[in-house]
Amino acid sequence: MGKYRLGEIATVEISGVDKKIKDGEKKIRLCNFVDVYYNWAITIAQHDSFMPATARPNEISKFQLRKGQVALTKDSETRDDIGISTYIADDFDDVILGYHCALITPQRDILDGSYLNAILHTEYAKKYFACNASGSGQRYALSVEALNSFPVPKIPLSEQKQIGEIFSSLDKKIELNRQINQNLEAMAKQLYDYWFVQFDFPDEDGKPYKSSGGKMIWNEKLKKMIPKEWTNANIYQLANISKESVNPQAQPNDLFKHYSLPEYDKTRTHAEEYGADIQSAKFVVTNDCILVSKLNPWTSRVICGNKESNQICSTEFVVWKPISMRTKGFLFMLAKSAKFIEYCTQGATGTSHSHRRINPELMMKYEFPYNSEIAMKFSIFIENIIEQLHTNITQLKVLTKQRNELLPLLINGQVSVNSDLLHD
Fold first, then answer.
1. 305 and 222 in one domain?
2. Are residue 250 and residue 387 in the same domain, yes or no?
3. Residue 421 lies in a domain
4. CB of 335 closer than 8 Å to CB of 302
5. How crowded is residue 232: how many other Cβ atoms within 10 Å of its Cβ?
């Protein structure tokens, strides 16, 4: 199979648009590193999440997102985060590509953008970008020359479009699953806020407590009004820190479900790795655990353990072991709450702003308004939501694995797939 150099069949632009406001610039939306990183395909559905910004007319014309283009993360603190691509599935009149990204415009009579996006997700592409990134230590970057030299297999345009369509269909299924999870989490957070921040939990008559005139009293420890018969509590009163550990290399042939920060950031779940490939001791994770990241707590990373076997996690997580499973749901949402994140962020220390940690002992001393009966009712109420989140995450993992395993086989012509089947 012959190959093109990417620069022969596409135009590559390195983005340099930032958020600084200058006189005479037009208001615009910015599609930045995070948007590209988390989407196989950017569509109109993501439009409202793009960051407001301003830009010069020449920047708008150069970096405006158009259907058929491919956006790419061009520099990052780690080699693993560069070269991650996203297909632009819609036209955007008021969105341009932001800093730390590149924009690829294919020659449409030779190269299909969705096919290029699929190729850029192969292991070969990842290795190419890792080997061709310049820099060390703080930042790695891809040059225009490295991107222009990327080899693209020569196959007929009709086959390219079929491959692109197949992966667009899989991506839509994956994106739908993600949206369902986002909605479920939003529902759980809203309910937590109603009950434990606004104190509008159901009273004895099923009415919202505070809004219906429920009695409030001053709590000196919390320096705020809380419902009568509530008190202040800290996490230590509801959970312990589990430090049970395992050395996976002592079980080299066992398959572990490994929660790490990089994997969680990419998939919101675990990686499956054999013990021989895991380099250091990890914490044991069981069904009754809640994992809370101590690194950069403003980036909330909270995981609810499930019933799967051989679960382990990075020591960058603090493993909460609830004293009672009846309050697990409450603790899970407490760890995701804005006040808890703010508390941990203020208490985090470190020599670099990008690498700050909250001391686990300090984390567990977080004080909050508490009523055990209401907390248990809340946990029961959101039990089904947490179960559905786990189910959807498992489905996401299966779909993503199918996509990644199918990709090289299609590109190399080893298998062919009827794309109509993917629309069922």
1. yes
2. yes
3. no
4. yes
5. 16
Residue 159 lies in a domain: no
Is residue 283 within 8 Å of 261, Cβ to Cβ? no
Cα torsion 125, 392, 312, 357 to 10°: value is 80
- The residue written with tokens 């990419």 in the block is 266
Identify the three-state secondary structure at position 70: strand
Q: How many CB atoms lie within 10 A of CB 79?
A: 17
CA distances from 146 to 3, 13, 369 (A): 16, 12, 55
Q: In whole angstroms, how large is the CA radius of gyration of the chain?
A: 24
Domain housing 88:
3-154
Exposed, middle or buried by CB within 10 Å (0-12, 13-18, 19+), for 21? exposed
Task: Among 154, 189, 206, identify where a domain stops.
Answer: 154
Please tell me the pTM assigned to this model: 0.72
* pLDDT by 10s per residue, the chain, length 424: 689 999 999 999 987 666 565 666 778 888 888 788 777 788 887 777 788 888 778 788 888 899 999 999 998 887 878 898 999 989 988 888 888 899 999 999 999 999 999 889 888 888 999 899 888 667 889 999 999 999 998 889 998 898 888 887 887 788 788 888 889 999 999 999 999 999 999 999 999 999 999 999 999 999 999 999 999 999 999 999 999 999 999 999 999 999 999 888 877 888 899 999 998 999 999 999 999 999 999 989 999 988 888 999 999 999 999 999 999 999 999 999 999 999 999 999 987 777 899 999 999 999 999 999 999 999 999 999 999 988 888 888 888 788 778 877 776 766 665 544 444 4
Residue type for position 18: D
The count of other CB atoms within 10 Å of the CB of residue 404 is 13
Contacts of 159 (CB under 8 A, 6+ apart): none
Residue recorded with tokens 């009966």: 373
- Helix (H, G, I), strand (E, B), or coil: what is residue 119? helix
Distances 7 to 4, 10, 149 between C-alpha atoms, Å: 8, 5, 6
Residue type, 126: K
